[in-house]
Amino acid sequence: MPTHVIRNAGASARDAFRSLVISQQLLGTTEVLLVKHTGCGMLTFDNDTARGLVKKNKGDEAAKEVEDLDFLAFPELEEKVQDDVQWLKSKAVEEGVKVTGWIYEVETGRVRKVV
User: Fold this and answer.
1) What is the pLDDT of residues 26-50, one digit of tens each?
2) 107: Cβ–Cβ under 8 A, 6 or more apart, which residues?
3) 92 has a pLDDT exceeding 70
4) Edge-first strand listing for the sheet containing 31-37
5) What average pLDDT is seen over the chain?
6) Has domain 9-43+75-113 been given CATH number 3.40.50.300?
7) Would you list the DSSP string of 47-81?
8) Rounded to whole angstroms, what are the CA distances from 1 to 20, 28, 31, 53?
9) Hey, which of 2, 9, 49, 70 would disulfide with 45, CB 3.0 to 4.6 Å?
10) Would you call 32 helix, strand, or coil by DSSP?
11) Buried b (16+ CB within 10 A) or exposed e, 75-110
């Protein structure tokens, strides 16, 4: 069975959805493992903070480019794993495709299943 790794900031299911659909439809993916990790930078900010940094570092023109962008940050790791798995299951994930959610604990090197 082929394996496809889709990596993005925060292991966002919403951000990876296009790639997941392509992987299922063209490459025959039959299982999705969503893996987030402890210490993730996406836990450390919100949209307003990110937009403020863009404005500060890149100026007003760049700030306009991201004014409606959802950076998909989140405040709680385990809750976000559960949310992303449920979101994927409600979308165009093919029938019979298994979707699970995991947390990689950077501190211990262990991986634990959340859902």
Assistant:
1) 998 889 999 999 999 999 999 999 9
2) 38, 39
3) no
4) 31-37, 98-105, 110-113
5) 94
6) no
7) HHHHHHHHHHHH-HHHHHHTTT------S-HHHHH
8) 16, 9, 10, 42
9) 49
10) strand
11) eebeebbebbbebbeeeebeeeeebebbbbeeeeee
Count of helices and strands (H, E) across the chain:
4, 3
Q: Is the pLDDT of residue 2 over 80?
A: no
Integer angstrom CA distances of residue 73 from 21, 40, 105: 23, 10, 19
Amino acid at 114: V
- The domain spans of the chain are 9-43+75-113
What helix, strand, coil percent values describe the chain, rounded to 5?
45, 15, 40
Q: What contacts 62, CB < 8 A, 6 or more positions away?
A: 54, 55
